[in-house]
Amino acid sequence: MQVCHTIREIGEFVQNARAVGKTIGLVPTMGYFHAGHLSLMREAKKMCDVVVVSLYVNPLQFGPKEDLGEYPRDFERDCAMARSVGVGAIFAPGNAEMYPAGYNSFVEVAGITDKLCGLSRPGHFRGVTTVVAKLFNIVRPDQAFFGQKDAQQAIIIEKMVRDLNMGPEIVTLPIMREADGLAMSSRNVYLTENQRRAAPVLYRSLCAFREAVAGGERDVAKLRRDIKEMILSAPGVQIDYVEILSVPGLEPPDTLTGKCIAALAVRFGKTRLIDNMVVEV
Ligand code: AMP
Fold this sequence. Notes:
By secondary structure, the chain is an alpha/beta fold.
């Protein structure tokens, strides 16, 4: 596995692979790998000849009061994990490489970025689409792999690729969970013991939502109320949002029809966790 810190190095790596006819899969990440990241890398390896994993904690997608400084990092461990699943190259640029002095270009998807995480994290998705567009230009992958864990992000990136006629096919893969249902996240390490014990309430509330829909419930206001109620039964939680929206338009339906997502963001103390469940009726 090659470790590249510069755009030139990763450019050469990709060019060499392409020259011998290999297809390239890109997995964009912020590092501190868990089984969710590894599932994306494994799938990429199945579908593409060569897998490039970008590992970059992108300052542009963090708000001024967010956890950029504390975001967990362990580069050596990440490299060992990526190597173990057959990743071809890690691209881990520094900030000066990605945003040199005078950098002033941004990519913005309008509309669907204004809701859910876009509301509570203004500018977040502009940072995400900008860095992902840059990564697509640097690596020029055939396919790029994202997790359903960040459902809104995946929808926004698909829209960006369609709207701007970008090259890669976007592949979105299922949420990997801990044994008790908590969605894996690099941020789970922030949770105290008590918060960690309480956190699976998120998945339980989404499973109850899925069961209610399977049982015929179509009243969106009621479904939403029930999710909130179950979450608030846990100690010390603060709901950022609980929404039920259409997919991929992210519009609020009155009654549940077609493909819909229940998406939530909940704070356990300082730690903000997100999760979601898609249903189709
Ligand atoms: P991150 O490093 O948190 O930016 O995540 C990098 C990629 O891994 C994103 O496409 C995420 O959606 C995906 N990812 C994060 N957590 C999970 C998970 N629990 N299951 C599947 N994919 C995930």
